[in-house]
Design goal:
Blueprint: H1 3-12, E1 18-25, E2 28-36, E3 41-46, E4 54-55, E5 69-77, E6 83-87, E7 92-97
Antiparallel strand pairs: 1-2, 1-7, 2-5, 3-4, 3-5, 5-6
Length: about 100
């Protein structure tokens, strides 16, 4: 699933919707189940170096003009209380809504 499709899907969800995420992790990918907690926001642009994190320098420097947008949202893993900030495209590869 590409970044824009994921953002559009998350825009249609209500807070508390159960979902399954496919995420990047050490050694490949993993699946996490939990609840969408909202907070979808545009958080800058990925750094040209490909390092973790986003840069909010778009428009200030020419080298950021063609970079991918960075979107983040809140997620709580099933059975846990902690709310995680998940990055679409960098950490989150796919989102599946559970019915």
């Amino acid at each position: 699933m590409d970044d824009l499709s994921t953002v559009n899907l998350l825009n249609t969800l209500e807070i508390g919707t159960e979902m399954e995420l496919t995420i990047k992790c050490l050694g490949g990918t993993a699946k996490m189940q939990g609840k969408y907690k909202g907070g979808l926001e545009h958080h800058g642009y990925y750094k040209p170096s490909g390092g973790w994190g986003c840069s909010s320098l778009k428009g200030k420097y020419k080298e950021f003009e063609d970079e991918r947008e960075c979107w983040q949202f809140h997620f709580t893993e099933k059975g846990k209380r902690s709310i995680y900030m998940m990055q679409i495209g960098y950490k989150v590869l796919d989102v599946k809504v559970l019915i």
